[in-house]
């Protein structure tokens, strides 16, 4: 998308999937940078924990 190195950008796009069926949302890099994320595929769950970056201010 271009932009400045070291910057964080919000990108919004239509996934083409109606709510209630299939993929409803994606947690992108900006969200995932703020938390320690654990993906437990065997038990079909995702866990999040706070990090020093969870409550930083962005514009």
TrEMBL record:
InterPro entries: PEPTIDASE_A1, Peptidase_aspartic_dom_sf. It comes from the Eukaryota. Residues 1-49 form the Peptidase A1 domain. PROSITE patterns: PEPTIDASE_A1. This is Peptidase A1 domain-containing protein. It comes from Crucibulum laeve. The lineage of its organism: Eukaryota, Fungi, Dikarya, Basidiomycota, Agaricomycotina.
């Amino acid at each position: 998308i271009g932009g400045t190195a070291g910057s964080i950008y919000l990108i919004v796009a239509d996934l083409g999937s109606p709510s209630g069926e299939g993929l409803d949302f994606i947690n992108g890099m900006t969200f995932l940078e703020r938390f320690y994320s654990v993906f437990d595929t065997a038990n079909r769950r995702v866990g999040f924990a706070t990090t020093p970056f969870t409550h930083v201010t962005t514009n």
